[in-house]
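Annex B. Sample input.
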Amino acid sequence: MARRERLVAFAPNPRGDGAWAVDRKGNIFAFGTAPEFREVPEPVPWRGGPFVAIASTPSGQGVWILDSKGNILSFGDAPEFREVPEPQPWRGGSFVSIAPTPSGQGVWILDSKGNLLAFGDATELRSARSSDDKSGR
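Annex B, continued. Sample output.
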């Protein structure tokens, strides 16, 4: 097992009898019946930021981990998705969250400024609006 850094995110498997946690370096720690996955290679094959989020596939046999620059690593049966385009067409913040589609064939990633990117079969959604925005846009 890798030397444990500070854990930054947690995701349960769909059955609720296992889960994973991820640290800043992308090491994944399995709990309960969740399968174990290999460690992220050192050095990471791109110049990303620290890892910030993890999400389970609907089958519970794979995960995606997300770094703060929007790079997504896939493990197990999680499909691979292309990285965030550079330069980014918006001036967003660091990426903070990842969520799978119900089919597991897509994901959404969210940055700290409310920009949402869709991959795979994820529907393109508009950026977040504040609760003060009454326009319905």
